[in-house]
Fold this sequence. Notes:
Layout: H1 19-31, H2 35-60
Amino acid sequence: MRLSRWPARLGLMCTKYDPKQEAEAAMKRAAASEGADRQRLIQLALAWHELARERREERAD
């Protein structure tokens, strides 16, 4: 099953969000949570961390 009919587009993300701060906030919320909610927040934090890492790499190029 295909989730989107549009092709993926890679490039700089122009948002008002700071991925590093979002990752830190998600980890703090995960530490205060339990069970499935904790796991979901850890996965969210990892996704934000990956975005922050990609941004740093793009700026370095």
